[in-house]
Structure formats: structure tokens, C-alpha cells
Amino acid sequence: MVYFEPDVYNALRVKISYTNQSFSEFVNEAVYIALREDQEDLSAFEERAAEPTLSYEELLENLKSHGKL
Predict the structure, then answer these.
(1) DSSP conformational letter for 1
(2) Would 46 be classed as within a structural domain?
(3) Where do the DSSP E strands lie in the chain?
(4) In the chain, how many domains are there?
(5) Alpha-carbon gap, residue 29 to 31, rounded angstroms
(6) ∠ CA 21-29-47 to the nearest 5 degrees?
(7) Three-state DSSP class for 69?
């Protein structure tokens, strides 16, 4: 069981009326999309794990030295 705030529920009802989907189909698709985005983010983190890090202070100094700040 899922409970939505009244405004969110009303917005979903309107959106669903335009998609010709059931409420369950629409919510399942939205959850699937969110999970797929999480997987893509995790993959990107793994790909970049070996890259050198740069502190915020170093970033600011780099921008300043290149005339961007």
C-alpha cells in the first residue's frame, strides 16, 4: 500500500489520464526509471573511482589561477 499526499495524488491522476496507463503501471514504470538511474549513477562512480580527487580549496585555486574566478 502506498499513500500519497493529496496534491501529489491529484497530479498523478491527471497525468495518468493522459497516458492511458493504470495507476499501477504508471507507478511501476516510475520506480523502474528511478532504479535504472541509480544503477547508472553507481556505474559512473565505479568507472571514475580511480580518478584523482581534488579538494574544494584546490578546485577554487585552480579556477582562480586560470582566471575563471
Answers:
(1) -
(2) yes
(3) none
(4) 1
(5) 5
(6) 160
(7) coil
Residue reference for cell 497530479: 11
| 41 inside domain | yes
Give the cell for residue 69: 574566478
In angstroms, rounded to a whole number, what is the distance separating the alpha carbons of residues 29 and 20?
13
**pTM higher than the cut 0.70:** no
* Cβ contacts of 29 within 8 Å, gap of 6 or more: 21
Please give the grid coordinates belonging to residue 31: 520506480
Cα–Cα distance, 22 to 28 (Å, whole number)? 10
- Grid coordinates of 4: 500519497
Q: Is residue 1 part of a domain?
A: no
Phi, psi of 50 (to 5 degrees): -85, -5
Model pLDDT for residues 30-64, shown as the tens digit of each residue: 999 999 999 999 999 899 989 999 999 999 999 99
Side chain identity at 21, as an amino acid letter?
Answer: Q
